[in-house]
Amino acid sequence: MLPNTYDSQNCSIARTLEVIGERWTPLILRDAILGARRFEDFHSSLGIARNVLSARLSRLVDEGILERRRYQDRPAREEYVLTDKGRALEPVLLALLTWGDRFAAPDGPPTLLMHEACGHRLEADLVCGHCGEPVQPGGVVFEPGPGGGTPLAFRGPGAS
Amino acid sequence: MLPNTYDSQNCSIARTLEVIGERWTPLILRDAILGARRFEDFHSSLGIARNVLSARLSRLVDEGILERRRYQDRPAREEYVLTDKGRALEPVLLALLTWGDRFAAPDGPPTLLMHEACGHRLEADLVCGHCGEPVQPGGVVFEPGPGGGTPLAFRGPGAS
Predict the structure, then answer these.
(1) Residue B93 maps to a domain
(2) Residues of A in contact with B136 (CB under 8 A)
(3) Is residue B45, in this structure, part of any structural domain at all?
(4) Is B43 on the interface with A (CB under 8 A)?
(5) How far apart are CA B33 and CA B11, in angstroms?
(6) Which of A57, B67, B96, B141 shows the greatest Cβ crowding within 10 Å of its Cβ?
(7) CATH code, domain with B42
(8) Cβ of A96 and B120 within 8 Å?
(9) Is B114 within the bounds of a domain?
C-alpha cells in the first residue's frame, strides 16, 4: 500500500487520486476497459517492468477495482476483470481522453470512440442529472457536504 | 519540463496525464476552478513546499492552462488565472470527484456540487452528444483515429 499521498486533503478528488493516481495505473485501467485481462496483455500494451505492473494490478485488486479470476487450472492462470467499482472509473478516462483529443493531439485523435448504442462517434457531454442541461465551465458551485469538507474561499481583492 | 512520462503511448489519455499528472497538479487545478488565483491561496490550501508549488504553477503556465496576470505594480504581484484550455479540464475533476464521492467517502461527500443554472445538486451524467442518451459503462467502442493510434485487441481465449 502507498502512504496517503494527499493526507491533508479531505476531498474526493484527492481520495480518488490516491487510488488511481500512481504512474501507469490510469493506463492499466484504460486497457482493462478496452478488454485486457491477462498479465501479458497489459505487459505488451504498456511495456513496463513486470514487477511494476504486478504491484499496480495487486493494488487495484486490493482496492476492489479489479477482480482476480482463475481461468485455467493446469497450469494455474488468472486474469484481471473490472468490477462495477472499476467500470465506474470509465468517465474519468473518457474525460482525460476528451481533453487530450482537443488539446494534445496535433495530428488528430489517435483513437475514436463510438457510442455503441447509437452507432455514432461519441463526444461525451456532461449534463446535470436534474435539469438535463449541459454543465458549463464555471457553472458549478461547491458547498460543504456531510463528509465535513471545509469550503475553500479564495476571493481576495485581486480576484474578479 | 518533465521528460515524457508515457513516451511509448500514442494515446490522448496518456498525453493528458503528461500535462496534469504530476503530484499535486490536479489539486492545484481544483483550487483554481474554486477561485484560487494567488500563490498564497494555493499554498495555504495545499500546504506543499513553495518550490514545488512554484514549479507546478510555472508548468501549467507553460502549457497554456493558467495565465499569469499582473494585478499590482508596486510591489509587483501576479495571479494565476485559468485559460479556456484550463477550464476545459473541469470535467476531468468532476469525474474524479464523482467517483470519490461514491467509493471513497465513507462519511459522505466532503463537498457538494450545485448546478448553478438550475440550483440543484449536481450529479453529472455523461451523455452522448449525438443521441443524448447516457453513456453506459462498457458502451463505448474504440477505433483507430486520424492520429494513428493502434487499436488494442485483447480478446484471447480467456476473455468472455
Answers:
(1) yes
(2) 117
(3) yes
(4) no
(5) 26
(6) B96
(7) 1.10.10.10
(8) no
(9) yes
Whether residues B135 and A142 touch (CB distance < 8 A) is answered with: no
CB pairs under 8 A between A and B: 367
Instruction: Tally Cβ neighbours within 10 Å of residue B24.
Output: 20
β-partners of residue A105 are none
pLDDT at B27 over 50: yes
Q: What is the pLDDT of residues B45-63, one digit of tens each?
A: 999 999 999 999 999 999 9
> Which residue in A19, A143, A155 is closest to B114 by CB distance?
A143
The C-alpha angle with vertex A89 and arms to A81 and B117, in degrees rounded to 5, equals 155
B84 Cβ neighbours under 8 A, 6+ residues apart:
A137
Is the minimum CB–CB distance between B3 and chain A shorter than 8 Å?
no
Work out the number of other CB atoms within 10 angstroms of the CB of residue A102.
14
Contact of A53 with A39, CB cutoff 8 Å: yes
Residue B146 and residue A109: Cβ atoms within 8 Å?
Answer: yes
Residue B34 lies in a domain: yes
Residue closest to B41 by CA, chosen among A156, A14, A6, A160: A156
Containing structural domain, residue B70:
12-121
Quote the pTM value.
Answer: 0.89
Name the domain count of chain B: 1
- Could you give the ipTM of this predicted complex? 0.89
CA-nearest residue to A80 within chain B is B159
